Amino acid sequence: MSWVAETDYEALGQSIVANATGAITAYSVAFGELTLVGPANRVVEALTFLRDHPETRCQELVDLCGVDYPDRPLRFDVVYHLLSMTKNHRLRLKVQTDEDTPVPSAVPAYPVADWFEREAFDMYGIFFSGHPDLRRLLTDYGFHGHPLRKDFPMTGYVEVRYDDALKRVVYEPVKITEFRQFDFLSPWEGADYALPGDEKVKA
């Protein structure tokens, strides 16, 4: 948790927006945290500003993650969490993009963004232009889809098992066998039939 007061974040947010020359366009303070917003095509400029400006000095990119809002035209937020060791504060920068438009890679400003961006690409399908090696990081080779998208099925698309006859791992379409029958009756009101085991109870 940061030690900077919320009123200080108000002043800092105003100063950042005034001096970032359009790379950061808005800010908000909530729960003692400062969140900045800017256009995705200028994210490297915004990150470089936050890294080098005397008021911010965010030397570390702590995390980069995606957030999925499938009902929006720009469905993804890319969120950068920054830390200043010298100023003792944390900042959050957000940009938006869609499924097809890449966000410039943050690697020129923060080399540590390399694997963070690979994870966001793997989990959400967010593209990063200029990335030195944009490929999947957590899922298997040939994996179909992006597991953290809200429209990705909980079961996935394929299941993996070892085939003893073929002596290798095989991929097969997911088959869901439903053994339960749901009656959608309220458990508080009671079912209108004997539940398994209840037939043993004496009247």
Please summarize what this structure is.
The protein is an alpha/beta fold. The chain contains 3 helices and 9 strands; from the N terminus they run αββαββββαβββ.
Q: How does this structure look, described?
A:
The chain is of the alpha/beta class. It has a domain of 133 residues: Beta Polymerase, domain 2 (2-Layer Sandwich), CATH 3.30.460. The chain has three helices and nine strands; from the N terminus they run αββαββββαβββ. The strands form three sheets. Strands 1-2-5-4-3 form a five-stranded mixed β-sheet. Strands 6-7 form a two-stranded parallel ribbon. A two-stranded antiparallel sheet has the order 8-9. The mean pLDDT is 88.
In terms of per-residue confidence, which ranges show pLDDT below 50 for 5 or more consecutive residues? none
Give me the CATH architecture of the domain at 6-138, please: 2-Layer Sandwich
Largest sheet: 5 strands, mixed
What is the level 1 CATH name of the domain at 6-138?
Alpha Beta
Distance between the termini: 61 Å
Structural class: alpha/beta
Number of strands: 9
Shape: extended
The assembly state of the depicted protein chains is single chain
Mean pLDDT: 88
Share of helical residues: 10-25%
Q: Radius of gyration from the CA trace? A: 24 Å
CATH superfamily of the domain at 6-138: NADH:ubiquinone oxidoreductase Nqo5 subunit
